[in-house]
Amino acid sequence: MELDRLQLRYCIVSFLIVATMFSCTEAYDPLDPTGNITIKWDIVSWTPDGYVATVTMNNFQMYRHIMSPGWTVGWTWAKKEVIWSMVGAQTTEQGDCSKFKGNVPHCCKKTPTVVDLLPGVPYNQQIANCCKGGVVASYGQDPSAAVSAFQVSVGQAGTSNKTVKVPTNFTLLGPGPGYTCGPAKIVPSTTFLTPDRRRKTQALMTWNVTCTYSQFLASKNPSCCVSFSSFYNETITPCPKCACGCQNKNCIKSDSKLLSVAGVNTPRKDNAPLLQCTNHMCPIRVHWHVKLNYKEYWRVKIAITNFNYRLNYTQWTLVAQHPNLNNVTEVFSFDYKPLVPYQSINDTGMFFGMKYFNDLLMEAGPAGNVQSEVLLQKDQDTFTLKKGWAFPRKVYFNGDECMLPSPDLYPHLPNSAPPVSARIALQSSFAATAIFLVLFIFFL
Question: What's the pLDDT score for residue 343?
Fold first, then answer.
């Protein structure tokens, strides 16, 4: 009996350890190991029945941003709190505020849902870093735009550090699923500098919430794929068939008359795509072409094509992992930034569009692609075009990993030996020459 209990206890502990390991690694990105979105609450003043707090969202992800229609943040109040007013954001629902006489709160829901205000709202509804429609840049692309903030006045919440209870069950959509938020943790109070930078002030209370992204939670299928080609092989390696899933996906041919119907390109509230019919059925295809091979350099052409008729990609990012990215000489039509997640290994880089030139990837159609060329210096000790060396190990678009073709389908170097027909002809020529010489000697 005691042995059975020990075995049962061992099984339970083993299961919990495995489950914990899986949950910890589920949102881990090896190319951005410290990337997350941190939501910070700073209580800046007390009110008769609660507090005023500044809520700041910092995107510390190097290459994953929040694009339109923007972020949505939610939580569950610990007590019976209400939101009296907000600046820089608003809740999507007011809830039941019928018990209040006179002043009516902005929101009375136990689980409020907050969205950013749109650009152009009156100045008395704005604070710093607000009102961008929920769009937040990635930290690697533009650190100054990788932040969003709003102010909230909370009532029925307590008026001291001992009576205030932190909210629970934080959620973040950015704009779709994929983010998992941990519990709020009380941290040392934030300090602020006055505009003249001569005096420091301090928040009355601060707590942080950390949210991490998992592509598996966002979608069961990839959202992009990669194809390859090279100057030394006529064969193009296409994206894998149904790389992004082909189950019950409606698509439209590029020459369909439906494309001329007014409103067909208008994005839907559920972000349902309208894809061009392809073998891979992905909204994004990245094509990597090995263009030229010089004595000391080699050249790659990168093309990104949008197959979604309903979505323009703003502030897009492309991340590639390749051992020769430590010797990038020039990038011609994209901006480039090396990513060094592990300090000693410089094999990852981020490409993104030049502002006002190609930072907008248009919807599917003639203008639905951006492209650039990259010049890389060879490392003579390690450089080789054999066995797929010229192609990337990983490719990410907008922070999601793209599906690569099977390695055995990569463009291969042509065989150095002559073709079979040439060998036969050469052997026949040698044989004829030998017979001629024998006959010539015989008749001398």
Answer: 77
- In the block, tokens 């992004």 appear at 244
Angle of CA points 353, 359, 361, to nearest 5°: 110
Task: State how far the Cα of 328 lies from the Cα of 344, in Å rounded to an integer.
Answer: 17
CA atoms within 13 A on the CB side of 176: 13
List, for residues 113-148, the tens digit of each pLDDT value. 999 999 999 999 999 999 999 999 999 999 999 999
Do domains 26-217 and 221-256+272-409 share one topology? The answer is yes
Predicted confidence at residue 261, as pLDDT, reads 82
Please state whether the peptide bond connecting residue 175 to the residue before it is cis, i.e. omega within 30 degrees of 0: yes
Residue 402 to residue 235: CA distance in whole angstroms: 21
Pairwise CA distance, residues 221 & 283, whole Å: 12
CATH classification number, 26-217, choose in 2.60.40.290, 1.10.10.10, 3.40.50.300, 1.10.1790.10 = 2.60.40.290
- Residue 22 to residue 65: CA distance in whole angstroms: 25
**Domain boundary assignment for the chain:** 26-217, 221-256+272-409
Alpha carbon separation from 296 to 176, 230, 299, 327, 389 (Å, rounded) = 45, 18, 11, 11, 16
Asked if 156 and 188 count as a contact pair (C-beta separation under 8 A), the reply is no
For domain 221-256+272-409, which CATH number applies: 2.60.40.290, 1.10.1040.10, 2.60.120.260, 3.30.200.20?
Answer: 2.60.40.290
The tokens for 201 are 């002030």
Distance, CA of 403 to chain centre: 14
Give CA–CA dist 223/249, Å, rounded. 13
Residue-wise pLDDT tens digits, 313-329: 999 999 999 999 999 99
| Rounded CA separation 182/41 (Å) | 14
Cis-peptide, bond into residue 105, ω within 30° of zero = no
Is the separation of the CB atoms in 113 and 127 below 8 Å? no
What does the block give as tokens for 27? 């949102």
**How much is the pTM?**
0.84
Instruction: List the one residue out of 149, 160, 41, 4 whose CA is nearest residue 88.
Output: 149
Low-confidence residues in the chain, pLDDT < 50: 1-3, 6, 8-26, 417-432, 434-444
How many residues are present in the chain? 444
